[in-house]
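Exercise 7. Predict the joint structure of the components listed below.
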Amino acid sequence: MSTPIVHVIDDDEAIRDSIALLLSTVSIACRTYASASDFLERYADAGSCCLVVDIRMPGMSGLELQDELKRRDIDAAIVFITGHGEIDLAVRAMRNGAIDFVQKPFRDQQLLDSVNSALALVEKIAQREDATRALGERYASLTPREREVMRLVAQGVANKNIAYELNVSQRTVEIHRSRVMHKMHARTLADLVRFDIELSKSAGDAIGQG
Amino acid sequence: MSVDNKIRLAMLQAVLRHAADGIISIDEYHTLITYNNAAEHMFGYSTEEIRAGGIDMLMPERDRRHHSAHVKAYLHGGPRRIIGTGRRVCCQHKNGTTFRADLSISEARVEGRRVFTAIFRDLTARDALQAQVETLGADLAHSNQELQTILRYAPIGIVTMSGRGRIITVNRAVSGMTGYDTADLVGRNALRFVHTDEQRQMGASFERLIGDGHGYSSSIHRIRCFDGSYANARTYNAVLAVDDVAQPILICMLQDISAELARDEELKLQRERLAHMARLTQMGEMAAGLAHELNQPLAAIANFAAAGERLSRQPTTETETLVDVFARIRSQAERAGQIVRNTRQLTRGRETQKRSCEVTAIVDELLPLLKVDSRYSQISVTTECADDTWVYADAVQIEQVILNFFRNAVDAVRELAEERRQIVIRTLSDLPAVTLEVEDRGPGVSSSLAKTLFEPFVTDKLDGMGMGLSISKTIIDSHDGDIGVKPAKPQGAIFWFRLPRIDPPQRE
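Solution:
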């Protein structure tokens, strides 16, 4: 896994630089952008990311950027920076899935905590994405017959009933079952059931469902 | 008849024919000898009619009997009543009307006959003239009385002076204005009652009038009053040159304008107060943006300071890094100070003062503040400014008009989509005028609203007072400029004003 990077987007250079400096003191790497469109242009990697965004900016606003990222199907953990008296904007941002918001001027620890939880979430997403990918690979290594056996076992069908349904001997079913457990890295039946459920919903996976 | 006599006779006949007086002669038997053209014209009778009817016809009925009696008595040795002395008599015209005439009668004895010659001078025209003169005299006396009354009670002070400025008469209004009694003023030099700084000017005006012998001059002067104070008066000086008077008369009319000036001053003050209020209101509207703007450097300072704290606790931190952090903190503190200065400059109530200034320079000075407002509303502002935009104006007031246009533009576009959140401020300079435009991409102004938009209390904003543009119009009017709104392309409104352009001031 690569080192986490925080993307700081603010039209005010001093705010941008001061946040970058603050993050650097706790060894968090970041990149700064003067506008939302600048970020969209330069952020080529479509994976999940952690953002610190000023909610009020000329051109595309912070909220508009949040919508745009959703539209592009990019998982972004966003910490919004708001000014005084902009609670309504902050509430909208939170409803829209933001991690947190900090009100200027803010205490350093408050920002760092928010950024850390955003990073944690991004990491969790990344881990889960990795796990899902690994599971998919393991599943792909099964033979068609083994997949059938796995589905029936996960549904709680007994070995002799599986043998009857597949028209093979009970012994053959036991061999398939042992190979499935081995290939899928499942130690117990419960593991196998869980893998089956995760595989069945593998398509949709986003922040807010974890 | 000798030749001489013939000539005399011809002359006599010519005299008789052309004389203006009526000449009639008869002898003692009432035989008509002469009845000239003038007499014919005067009485209306022809010679034949007189000859037939007798001269009694020429007098009114009531005089005829006396006349006959006098004539009879005289012929019989009675006393002369009229002959040689003459008298004024009443005559009767053929048409029955009577008229007055001077009558003189002479008597001559010619070859044993007594010849009486009467000369009539018609007094009708003279009487009419006399009557006219009498009427005129009465009228004149009346007019004079009227004029005196008018002068006396006129609300304008009227002073008559000799050519040297010595006061001859003053009316009541002068006393009312100055507190001096008439006696204090008459005989003294008028210039002594004018403010010392203005005596020379007033004296020059008198001299010019006397030199020209006619004409009129007007100016404003401070007139010294009895209590030592000064009254502001508009003075109208005229010279009255009378033909048969060697010295011309100066007439000075004084209109007390102290109250008028005080009213003007009060009005000006009120206008300034209103403009200042409007400026404060605009600042109030911009307060949220200003608070936000001020918050930026403060937030940056907090962050830099927090980072500095953390860095100074880390043993690996180099001194240079900390120095850099402090420099950043200082620069942000300066930035905050600049914002406060910009704000204060706009809110202070400066007095109206016109001088040469550049519209583009006013825009430049205002721009930081406008950017604050626009950043807060996430609006992009661009300027397209021309060089050589000199005008004679009160920069503070012009600033206010620009700010007013700008605030309206912000309100027009703040809720719109990003590509319409745009404002352009433009200055244009052509030969007679400098134009400033503020263009937005908002919904625009309907043509019906555009007609009344610059009147007070007209607005299309839900929470607007409708004062901003009317105050802007007052300001631009007082600068001899034009103000208006026109549609922008492809959409939006352009609010503009135009001021007379002046040449750049000479560098010293």
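Discussion. The radius of gyration of chain A is 23 Å.
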